[in-house]
Amino acid sequence: MGDTNKRVDIEKLFSLANDLIGMLNDGKDGDSLMQSLESAKSLRSFCETNVHETNMSLEEFQKRINGCKERIDKVKGEVMTDSKLNELQAELEEKMHIEHLLLVGDELDYLEQQRISFEEQWQLVKQRENNMRKSKDAFSMCASVTRIIPDHTNKAKISGYIVDRSKKKAEKFEFDPAMPQFEVISTCNPCHELPCYHQVGWLEKLTLNLALIRNSQISADLI
């Protein structure tokens, strides 16, 4: 805004105008008239300058006002942006939480499958242990009742040991499963030394023994 000393004094302006009118009415000489005209020109120039400066000041103030409005609008936009950003941040955190829960659920499902698999394997191990115990019991019964201990090292033939507790020794026997029973009896020399060889039913007993041996081999294959 222009200097306050340059402001137009309305009363002074009216006074100068009245003096000019008085001078014209009194009909003074041309010099006084020329002085009045010069004063009027000076006053007009002063007023124009003052008006120009005032307009410049108004334009400057208007620019400042517009700048303030722009900054206010920008601040409002930034506030709205922050609010939107907070909303997006909350939405992102919610999605991340859901994804975390899904991952935890998948991990729990995987652990549950592992647990079921371990339980199944444990059941198989227990079943194998039971089968092994049953096979051992069968071997023990076979050795106790028939005095024959089967040998599973040779899968192609039926072999084993005939135990003689009185002599504290064991004789090995071996023959082809496809061999006829009378050949088995004739080739199984240690069998002739058994006390029950000449008793009735020896063939039936030997057949029973061979069946027990085969059953023991089948049980061993299942282990």
In short:
InterPro entries: SPC24-like (IPR044951). The protein is mainly α.
What can you see in these coordinates?
- This protein has 223 residues and is mainly α.
- The protein is built from four helices and three strands.
- Among the domains are: 4-78; 146-222, no CATH class.
- 72% of the residues lie in helices and 8% in strands.
- The chain has a three-stranded antiparallel sheet with strand order 1-2-3.
- Helix 1 (10-26) runs antiparallel to helix 2.
- The chain is rod-shaped, with a radius of gyration of 64 Å.
- The model is unreliable at 1-6, 182-205 and 215-223 (pLDDT under 50).
Tags for this model:
rod-shaped, 3 strands, mainly alpha, 223 residues, SPC24-like, disordered N terminus, three-stranded antiparallel sheet, 72% helix
Q: Can you give the helix content as a percent range?
A: over 70%
Report the biggest beta sheet as strand number plus sense, adding barrel if it closes: 3 strands, antiparallel
- Rounded to an integer in angstroms, the radius of gyration calculated over CA atoms is 64 Å
Order of helices and strands: HHEEEHH
Report mean pLDDT, rounded to a whole number: 70
The structure class reads mainly alpha
User: What's the shape?
Assistant: rod-shaped
Q: How many angstroms separate the termini?
A: 109 Å
Give a topology summary.
Elements: H1 10-26, H2 30-145, E1 148-151, E2 158-164, E3 169-175, H3 181-187, H4 202-222
Antiparallel strand pairs: 1-2, 2-3
Helix pairs in contact: 1-2, 2-4
